[in-house]
Design a protein that fits this description.
Layout: H1 2-27, H2 33-56, H3 62-105
Helix pairs in contact: 1-2, 1-3, 2-3
Transmembrane segments: 5-25, 31-49, 70-93
Keywords: Membrane, Transmembrane, Transmembrane helix
């Protein structure tokens, strides 16, 4: 079960980063705000799964509870950092496109 939780965080992070970056590149910078909606949705889904998992599965072992808590915190960090990475990549792609277009015409 815990492997599924880790995989869900990684896949969710990639989904948020890719969706946000593509929306911003195709439709413009303001569409990156839709990525905030996805970010909040991902964090809330992680909190829901954390409450459910902690209450049902690892209620007997304190060590397992601590490990699971850290994994869910790691998932939140992955989701948050993926949005920041999408914003950074958007800036990098915009600068690259700007240089490629301006230098040959110059």
């Amino acid at each position: 079960m815990i492997e599924f939780v880790i995989l869900l965080g990684v896949i969710g992070g990639w989904f948020i980063a890719a969706t946000t970056l593509l929306l911003m590149l195709v439709f413009g910078k303001m569409w990156g705000l839709l990525g905030v909606f996805l970010l909040v949705l991902g964090v809330e889904l992680n909190k829901f799964l954390k409450r459910r998992y902690m209450g049902v599965i690892v209620s007997n072992s304190p060590r397992a509870r601590e490990v699971a808590r850290h994994i869910f915190e790691m998932n939140e960090l992955i989701i948050l950092s993926s949005y920041a990475a999408a914003l950074f990549l958007y800036i990098v792609v915009q600068k690259y496109v700007e240089i490629v277009i301006k230098v040959p015409a110059g």
